[in-house]
Amino acid sequence: MLMTPTRRPPETPLPAPRVPASAFEGLFVRALKAEGRLAQELEALGYRMKQPEMDYPVQLWQRAVALARQEVYPELSEEEAYRQLGRRFITGFAETLIGRMAAVALPMIGPVRALERVPRYLAMMGRPDIEVTLTPAGDRGRRLYLTDRYNRPDLMAGGLERMLELASVQPRITVEERSAEGYRLLVRW
Predict the structure, then answer these.
(1) CA dihedral sign of residues 10, 16, 67, 151
(2) What Pfam families does the database record attribute to this sequence (predicted)?
(3) Is residue 80 part of a domain?
(4) CATH value at residue 87
(5) Per-residue confidence (pLDDT) for residue 83, from 0 to 100
(6) Which end of the chain is more exposed for a tag (fewer CB within 10 A), N or C?
(7) Rg value, the chain, Cα
(8) Residue 161's beta-bridge partner residues?
(9) Is the pLDDT of residue 171 over 80?
(10) CA distance 114 to 102
């Protein structure tokens, strides 16, 4: 009897992640205090600051962050602009109800435990899909590999810098590798 190979059904792609309104609030309402042209352009994209939805497609987040990069930091290189937006995002997110819960513990837990909690923090920001691999890089450093296809590595680097400052250290973060599937950051303090 001749056996034919079994065909597996094609894998259904996972739906694109959604970003909670608290992330938008952190960056656009609390940190950037968007008004005027930026507020109008955000509304044209689909984000209404005064009437937020529960969450938004990650693609809208990408477009909104790119818009903020152009409007707020036109004089900076792309990498530096996204890094500054990441820093401001964490500052603003720490002022939201959800962000305050995470930020209050940072000075007490220190940099290593803060970095170990990055997957939990990302889940709070609507991104449980990002896998984080953390490896030691000496006593005062870690390498993080993140499977993030949607955020710029520089945005994440700036966010992590600000998070570690809230954990009472002075970090230096280098983007070591960039790919379509993710990026690797070297974090030292």
Answers:
(1) negative
(2) DUF2378
(3) yes
(4) 3.90.1520.10
(5) 98
(6) N
(7) 18
(8) none
(9) yes
(10) 10
Alpha carbon dihedral 98, 60, 157, 174, in 10-degree steps, equals 160
Task: Compute the distance between CA of residue 82 and CA of residue 86 in angstroms, rounded to an integer.
Answer: 6
Angle in degrees, 0-180, between the axes of helices 58-72 and 36-45, rounded to the nearest 10? 160
Say whether pTM exceeds 0.85. Answer: yes
- CA pair distance 184, 147, nearest whole angstrom: 9
Amino acid identity at 147: T
- Span 104-113, mean pLDDT? 96
The DSSP-derived string for the chain is -PPPPPPPPPPPPPPPPEEEHHHHIIIIIIIS---HHHHHHHHHHT--TTS--SEEEHHHHHHHHHHHHHHH-TTS-HHHHHHHHHHHHHHHHTTSHHHHHHHTTHHHHHHHHHHHTHHHHHHHTT-TT--EEEEE-STTEEEEEE--SSS-HHHHHHHHHHHHHHTT---EEEEEEEETTEEEEEEE-
Domain count for the chain: 1
